[in-house]
Design goal:
Blueprint lengths: L2 H9 L1 H4 L3 H23 L6 H10 L4 H28 L4 H20 L10 H21 L5 H24 L5 H28 L9 H22 L5 H26 L7 H22 L4 H23 L6 H35 L17 H25 L4 H15 L5 H26 L6 H19 L5 H15 L9 H24 L5 H20 L7 H17 L6 H28 L6 H14 L10 H20 L4 H23 L1 H4 L6 H4 L2 H7 L1
């Protein structure tokens, strides 16, 4: 066989050799969808296809995902029905005002959805609640405006078949979940171990000075974000009996903190006079401990034993610094070497502390206490600019579709508006809606073809539900199998969503050629129109997103330094990891050196923020002598002007940091008390990391150019990598 046919056959493997678990999902959902359709026909509801459609919207591959999505879909349905009734009741005979308020409502739901906690993705079911509100609001009001006297009956009918689909899917999926709690707890443990192992491998490479040890840090951060999002669904499966999910989420966040501490250590190891034979021996011992840790977690060894070994390593690091303090140094060079050694020991202590915290949270997720009140919420970062953009984009698109209907008096105009509203509700909260709409259009075209074959050929003469179920079930099964194949997931969502609408089952009539084409044409034109609007009106601009992200990072530095921001280590790390992953996800066709420069800048900004937080804590330490406190106050004051605006005081901030380092070194040389010297070494460790990051990533931190991309020469881009 030639390469072309072989490649095509391999691409169709999802159809003829599917994964058994996902094949079971497709079969289960198809049967549930047909059951919902049969009950809706038996109840003689006006549009029974919405019951089958709802099953496909709610059904997911796991029990936790299905329940989470069903809950938020139900919430969105209630909000959408109430809003739709209110709209039709308020303006039953003013078409232009109706379209305007319809567009405003869809835009409002998109804005609220943008503020929901979690990533802006199709798997964020809090955002899905607002999406469900939007399209329920649209279908209720668009059906009701044609017959406003019966709006309540229409809305109750729509709510009934949506509720029917939700209840059936949630009930039937629960029948196939045996031993769910045990499997979920095992999955949580595997999630942590699968993330910790590559992180420890990367850190082990740093400890021995291996080149490119942190090359896979991008994949690790992406994995942390993805798995952290999935913990929510495990919580649903476990119920609210304990806080295992909170501990698992905190454990994953602590792995991100661990990586940040490892990057600080790598920065300090590159400084002159930083390493000696004693440090290399300690680093080798810690490396061996880290590499053996995943195997120890898989065995029956108790967590207390592992934590005790880490605590022993921590004490050894502290004791070596104390022994250096008690040894008289012959000259300034030797004293400088002791200081550098103490800074590295401080970085090792913080690295071990971060790992101990991650392991403690992991153990609590495996064996949650009976009176545990720990809570680690899903963090939400409100971006008003993004929310307004999403709202305007969806509102203008819907209003434009309404104007087309009013100006053309198209008989199928309301159907056209309905499909536009569905697309805007689903995708306007995404950062790149045009790409999602393209994939959705491909799935809709497949649904048009499949429905055409069913309506015009296979079911043209059928009069029984058995024939309807046989042919439509076969078509739905194909869509379910495609959903399990990642490259086809979004087109499959569109296919499963629109297929029941295009089939249009009813007790009173059949979908003939006229009805079919009057439904298929508005669908295709609606998706084409929405895709075009996403590319024309407020389109996604990757360069602007990168600059906005950079400006926010510089502004965060300013806020943390002046003490106004109530930030914690977890909040700083989670926000910057979110930025890191968003930038990787939305990089598109941007040249790799530019993306790498921004990724490096985000990680550098995160570490500067973490060290500013540590300096703020050191300033509050009563053991800090007044001269050192004054030096830290000056650097904080200088950093507080680092606002990210044009001419962002980059040079003066870097010089002030280096001057503060010199003053604290003088204080450390004149200090003999061990506890006070520990505080000064901790402050010097943070200042050295800040100065090195500001110097190494000058292009990112110097805000004299509004965009980083054009200001980079090829040589500078190479240096940032």
């Amino acid at each position: 066989m030639q390469a072309g046919p072989v490649a095509l056959i391999r691409k169709l493997r999802w159809l003829y050799a599917p994964d058994p678990v996902m094949a079971g999902y497709a079969l289960r959902t198809t049967c549930t969808s047909l059951l919902a359709l049969g009950i809706a026909l038996w109840m003689e509801l006006g549009s029974p296809q919405w019951a089958a459609l709802t099953v496909w919207m709610v059904a997911q591959g796991t029990r936790g995902r299905s329940l989470a999505k069903a809950k938020w879909h139900l919430f969105g349905m209630v909000v959408g029905v109430i809003s739709g009734i209110t709209l039709v009741a308020a303006i039953p005979q003013a078409p232009l005002m109706f379209i305007l308020l319809l567009a405003v409502g869809i835009g409002t739901f998109c804005m609220i959805g943008t503020f929901m906690p979690g990533p802006a993705s199709m798997t964020n079911y809090r955002i899905h609640g607002m999406r469900a509100s939007g399209f329920t609001y649209a279908i209720v009001s668009l059906d009701g405006i044609a017959d406003p006297h019966h709006i309540f009956a229409i809305s109750m009918s729509r709510a009934t078949y949506i509720l029917l689909g939700i209840v059936l899917e949630a009930s039937i999926s629960g029948l196939f979940q045996l031993g769910l709690t045990k499997r979920t707890r095992h999955q949580l443990a595997s999630t942590f171990e699968d993330t910790l192992k590559p992180a420890l491998t990367a850190i082990a490479g740093i400890l021995v000075g291996k080149e490119g040890a942190m090359q896979n840090v991008q994949a690790i951060f992406a994995q942390i974000t993805t798995l952290g999002d999935q913990v929510e669904f495990a919580e649903v499966e476990l119920g609210r009996h304990d806080h295992a999910g909170d501990h698992a989420r905190a454990a994953l966040a602590d792995i991100a903190v661990l990586l940040a501490r490892a990057l600080d250590l790598a920065t300090l190891m590159r400084l002159p006079l930083s390493q000696d034979d004693m440090f290399r021996q300690e680093a080798e011992a810690i490396r061996d401990m880290f590499l053996k840790l995943p195997a120890r977690l898989e065995e029956t060894e108790s967590m207390a034993s592992i934590l005790a070994d880490l605590l022993t390593l921590r004490r050894q690091c502290r004791q070596k610094v104390v022994s250096d303090f008690s040894t008289a140094q012959p000259d300034d060079a030797a004293r400088e070497a002791v200081l550098r050694h103490g800074m590295l020991q401080q970085a090792l202590v913080e690295l071990i502390d971060a790992l101990r915290m991650a392991l403690t949270q992991f153990e609590a997720s495996r064996h949650p206490g009976s009176h545990d009140h720990f809570h680690s919420p899903i963090r939400s970062y409100r971006d008003w600019q993004q929310a307004i953009t999403n709202s305007l984009r969806s509102s203008v698109t819907v209003f434009g579709a309404g104007l087309i209907w009013i100006c053309t008096a198209w008989p199928s105009g309301l159907t056209f508006i309905m499909f536009v509203c569905i697309v805007c509700s689903l995708f306007s909260t995404l950062e790149r809606p045009a790409l999602a709409t393209q994939a959705f259009l491909r799935g809709a075209c497949c649904a048009v073809v499949a429905a055409g074959i069913l309506n015009l050929a296979l079911m043209g003469k059928s009069t029984t539900f058995e024939m309807l179920g046989m042919w439509s079930g076969l078509a739905m099964m194909i869509g379910g199998l495609a959903f399990a194949y990642p490259p086809l997931t979004l087109p499959a969502v569109s296919y499963n969503l629109f297929l029941p609408i295009l089939i249009g089952p009813s007790n009173q009539a059949k979908t003939d050629e006229i009805v079919y084409f009057n439904t298929a044409l508005p669908l295709v034109l609606g998706l084409l129109y929405a895709s075009w609007m996403y590319r024309v009106f407020l389109p996604y601009d990757p360069a602007h997103q990168r600059w906005t992200m950079r400006e926010h990072i510089l502004r965060d530095l300013h806020r943390i330094a002046d003490g106004r921001a109530q930030e914690t280590v977890d909040s700083v790390v989670s926000r910057n990891v979110d930025r890191f992953v968003r930038l990787m996800t939305n990089s598109g066709s941007t040249p790799s050196p530019v993306i790498q420069a921004y990724l490096t800048g985000i990680l550098s900004g995160m570490r500067v923020m973490l060290n500013l937080l540590r300096l703020q804590a050191i300033r509050r330490d009563t053991r800090l002598n007044p001269e050192a406190g004054q030096a830290l106050a000056l650097i904080m004051g200088r950093m507080s002007h680092f606002s990210g605006r044009y001419h962002g005081h980059y040079g003066r901030t870097l010089r002030a940091t280096k001057l503060a380092i010199l003053r604290l070194r003088t204080c450390e040389r004149n200090e003999d008390r061990p506890r006070e010297r520990f505080v000064l070494i901790a402050a010097l460790t943070s200042l050295d990391v800040i100065a090195t990051e500001l110097d190494t990533n000058r292009i990112f931190f110097d805000a004299r150019s509004p965009y980083l991309d054009p200001s980079l020469t090829p040589a500078e881009l190479e240096s940032t990598g």
